[in-house]
């Protein structure tokens, strides 16, 4: 018999329980559906990464990966009929789009079972609950319970799989991104990068992770998103390494943030768009032509604030941005330009290679003060002092903003203080941060009815 394994956000062979379930059901037909609803919304770096992951998976499946283009609810049942499949196997997708899509596919499959095994998380969203069986709304108690719960060991990599065959469309082509250095895609690259981080960097992660100028974070986010690695494997490897201490602890906590936001979105899928905490529902925002121009300046890295511009340009070039810079740029859009977080979140989702509805939209809600954890809405990131503190030599800015390359560390975050003024080609600051901060605080106070 033939069983289809439909790869989605699990583009790997190792530690893939759904793939093992398919193997136990018959010869495995490895399928990837290029869903235009997802592909066409993606920026070039994300397309590039996904194309690379698929090329790697194609090789790992002995060249048998079947690519089909189209809506999954049409394509998957058609292929199941074509190869007379006994079942279709997937790793459960717990996001709103994936859940709706899978229900539609399941219905269209009729008699052929859609078998869901596992999820993209160490502990499946919806599992960790309070004593009264309700979901956690605050991170720290969730994380405590999450650690106490523990997680299963990784599933073994299947030694030999008998791959079934079917006609395939071409692998998608990776867009040309010139000489930008990109994160290497695929399961093997994920393993290599992870091993290096675990051996050399995790011990110092707690005090180094806030530096965008240094390569001190794991860069696992895109790999976790596309499932070229599973968090169970990461947690297992950390335990096996025998390392302990604040570096390891902080890293595990960061993985837990990912699980927490997925849990929040599982319980309240509407919070991908709507405010989690509706206290600020009545908030007003800048609108009209002027707001559109401001948004454009932010999106293209031309605000005149070097830290913001460097980060936004990195996002466009690489499809990735350092966590600290995500907070600074998001705060700038929401609190200096007075725009709704949903607009920035949509833009990030389009460009981030690791773009993940749960982590991204709840990251934005956190910055905007509308999310879980009652993030202090009155906290307004100062792009100048943050830049000086976390990019102290200006290396990060100089890397992404060539107009400022000749400025030294003292001036690079405040180019208007240079003896000859702001270097040619670089914009003047678009707003007065101090003033906009007051305006933002006032807007928040009004929305809260105080
Ligand atoms: P590391 O520092 O090495 O962290 C390890 C892993 O922990 C990450 O790969 C990620 O899976 C998880 N993690 C770390 N911080 C967070 C966090 N705050 N929330 C959730 N998970 C976290 N992360 C995404 O994966 N996708 C997104 O679309 C996304 N959008 C964000 C938007 C905003 C406005 C903010 C403030 C944060 C966002 N994050 C997002 C979280 C975080 O910025 C990235 O996970 C991190 O920068 C990825 O780099 P890394 O893998 O080197 O992280």
Automatic annotation (TrEMBL):
Organism per entry: Klenkia soli
Reaction it catalyzes: cyclobutadipyrimidine (in DNA) = 2 pyrimidine residues (in DNA)
Listed name of the protein: Deoxyribodipyrimidine photo-lyase
Family: Belongs to the DNA photolyase family.
InterPro entries: Crypto/Photolyase_FAD-like_sf, Crypto/Photolyase_N_sf, Cryptochr/Photolyase_FAD-bd, Cryptochrome/DNA_photolyase_1, DNA_photolyase_N, Rossmann-like_a/b/a_fold
Name of one Pfam family that matches: DNA_photolyase
Annotated TM spans: none
Cofactor comment: Binds 1 FAD per subunit.
Residue ranges of every copy of the Photolyase/cryptochrome alpha/beta domain listed in the record: 1-120
EC identifiers of the protein: 4.1.99.3
Binding sites annotated in the UniProt record for FAD: 205, 217-221, 251, 254-261, 354-356
Biased composition (Acidic residues): 169-180
GO MF terms held by the record: deoxyribodipyrimidine photo-lyase activity; DNA binding; FAD binding
Record-level GO BP terms: photoreactive repair; response to light stimulus
PANTHER family: CRYPTOCHROME, CRYPTOCHROME CIRCADIAN CLOCK 5 ISOFORM X1
